[in-house]
Amino acid sequence: MSSKGETSEQASDQRGVVTLTALWGVHARAVFAVCLANTQNYHDAEDVMQSVFLKASEKISDLRDFDRARAWLLQVARRASIDHHRRKKPAQPLSDEPATINRNMRFERLHAAVQALPKHYREVITLYYMDDRSCSSVASSTGCTEHAVRQRLVRARAMLHDLLREDQT
Amino acid sequence: MTDAKECCDRFQDIVALVLEELDVDSAKELQDHIAVCEQCKETLEVLRDEERQIRSSFEALARGLSTTEHGSVWTQETKTQVSIGVNNNHFGERMKMMILTHKRLSFVAASTITAAASLFLYIGLFSMAGDAYALQQTLQANDQVRSYHVRVTPAKELGEAWIEVNADGTPRRARMSLTSRDDGAKVVVLTGDRAEVWFKDKKSHIITTAKEALNNLMAKRAIFDPKFAFEQLQAQKEAGKVQVVAQEATEEGEPIRLTVTFSDKPDRRALYEVDSRTKLVMRVTEFQRNGDQWTQVGTRDYLDYNKPIDSKMFQLDLPPDVVTIDRINQKAGLAKGSLSDQEIATKLAKEFFGAMIAEDFEKAGMIYSGIPGEALRQRFEQAGIKILRLVEVGTPSPHAKTQALQVPVRAELDVKGEVSVTELLPLCRQVHGQPERWQIIGGI
Predict the structure, then answer these.
(1) Which residues contact B338 (CB under 8 A, 6 or more apart)?
(2) Which residues of chain B from 239 to 278 reach within 8 Å of chain A, CB to CB?
(3) B-chain residues within 8 Å CB-CB of A9?
C-alpha cells in the first residue's frame, strides 16, 4: 500500500534509465526537506534544491542505480547547503533573514520553531513531515537506524511542542 | 487517578502515540491509562490538534514540489527528459527556471522549454479558473483510498477503527473498537475469511466467519466508512434532503469546509472538513441546536489515508482468562431437524438444565453458545451457583430486541448455600454460520 513503492517503480523509464522527472517525483520532498533543515530559509532551500537537481541532470547518465540516487541527492543537498551558507554575506544572518514569501502566520511560527531545534533533530523532523511521515524512509535518508530515527523524532516533536507553546505565551 | 510524576513521564509516550510511532502493546497500555487520566487526555488532545496543524503546514509546503505526468519536453542537448506539470505551476516554474539558468543548455533548448512552459502554465492558470470544489472530487478521491483510520468522539457505538478496503470499498482487514449496551466493550478483528470478536466485559472471544461479521459491521458503515458517508451525502443533496455550502480554503493548508444543513432536521448541522489537496474528508463535526446555541455533539476524524497499517493491529492479544468459542470449527447448540422454532427452543432449555443438573458441562456448554465445558463449570463455580432441579418450562415467545425466542423457566438453584426457586428466561436462536442448529445465547 505504500505510495513510495509505486513511485519507485516509476523511477526509471521502460529501458531502466533513471530520468530527472522520476528523481524529482520521488525525491523532491526529501531533498527540499534536507535543504530547508540545513539552510533554515525557504528561499535558500529552493535555490539549493535547484542546484542539486541541476547537478543531478548533469550526472543523470551515471545514476544507474535508482536506490542509491536518494542517498546521493541528499548528500549533494547537504554539501550544497553548506556551500550556500559559506557564500552568504556575513551581514545577513541566516535565521534573521526576513521572509518575503507570502505564507500564513501559522507556517511562519512553525518554521521558526523548527529552526530553533538542534540540527540533527531539525533534519529528522523536516524529512519526516515532508516525506510521507515514515521513519523507515527517514532512516534510509539519514543513514541512521529506524530506532534512532524514532527516538530523535519523538524528542524533536516534544521540543517542538514546547517551542510552539512558548511562542504562544 | 494517577500522580503527576507518572503522567509527566508519559509525555514522550503520548507524543509517540500522536505520531503513531508507539508499538501496539504500549499504545494499548497508554490508551487505557489515558481513558482514566484527565491530565493525559488533555495533553493528548492538545498534541493531536497541534499535530494536525503541523501536518497541514508541511503538506502545504510540500504541495508545490509534487509532479504531474502531463506535458513533456525532450531536450536533445542534455538527453534529459523534463516534465512540466499542467496543474502545478510551482513545479513548472521552478524546473523552467532551473533549466533556463543552466549555462550548458543551448539557446534553442531554452526557447523551446520557455514556449512549452508558458503554454502549460497558461493552460494551468486557465484550468484553475474553473477549479471550484465539487463533491464529485471527493467521491473520485475516495475511489483511490485503500486504508484509513477513523476515530469517533465521543465513542458511542464505534470508538476507533483501522481499515483496509478492497477496490469495491468493502473491508479487507479491519480492527474496530466498539461498545454496545448488550455486549459492553468489544473489539472486532476481520482478516480474510474469518472474524474474531473479543467481548472485553464478558471475557469471551468468538471466532466466526467474516461474512457474519461483515453483515453486522456494514450496518454501521455510515459511521466508519468515509466513502459510504460521502456517497450518502451526495445522494441526500441530489434528493434535496440536505443543503451543502462549500467554503474554499483561504490559506495554504486550510481545509475546504462544507456546511451541511438538513431539511427535515433544522436543529442539526454537520461540518465536513476536506483536505484541499487530496480532496479527502479529514473530519466531520456534528452540531445540535439547543435554543439559540449550537453545540458540538460529536466528531469523526479520518486519519492516515493509504498509510500502511501494522499487521499487529489485526491480531488480538487476549488475556488468559478469556474463553474462546470457535464457531467455524466447532459445532454449537443442537440440530433443529424437523422441529419448529418453539419446539427446538423448549428442547434447548430442557436439555441445558438437564445437563447442568447432571454436571455434564461439556453438553451444557455446547448448548450455551458453544462455551467450553470447563469454562462453563468455572463460571458457575465462581458465582457459587448450582442448578438443582428444573421445576417448569413455559411456552417460548419472541424477544423484541434480539429476535430470539425467550423460554420462561423456573428452576431450583443453590446460590452460595441458599436454595430457592428462580425464574429464568434463556434466549434461543439459530447459530450464526450453522443454520441447521439452534443454541442458547443468553438469559441465564
Answers:
(1) none
(2) 251-253
(3) none
